[in-house]
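Translate sequence into structure tokens.
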Amino acid sequence: MKVILKQDMENLGESGTVVEVKPGYARNYLLPQGLAYPATEENLARVQEEQRLAEEAAKRDYLEAKRRASQLDKVSLTFEVNAGEGGKLFGSVTSGDIAEKIVAEADLDFEFDKRSIQLDEPIKELGTIAVGIKLHTEVIAEVEVAVVAAEG
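Result follows.
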């Protein structure tokens, strides 16, 4: 019996795919649990339309992420911090600090989430570093972060 999966299932397939299963498995498990529905012409047409809409939404999301990345790629941040000998900081510059400064200084037309900043560990030395900001699975913007010693 052919059914269309409503969600990803291990050993069967991904959501929206048509799979051949034994009639008893479909009748007694997949259909009553709401995990699949019969592969009728009407349901196949509906799945194709849902996939088309999902592809359009994914394309829109990608293009929006590229637009946002073009805004962030122009951003350059400077942090003035207290530092000791050898360029070691008293404290550190964290992803939260970077996010606050981006929101305060950059003229962005979208909400910015600090969890998208790809900083493995806080910055603890003077210098300039390129920090990645993940806006989409395929789009990562880079912001230049300069950490300089505060005068005085």
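Note: The domain at 2-68 is CATH 3.40.5.10 (Ribosomal Protein L9; domain 1).
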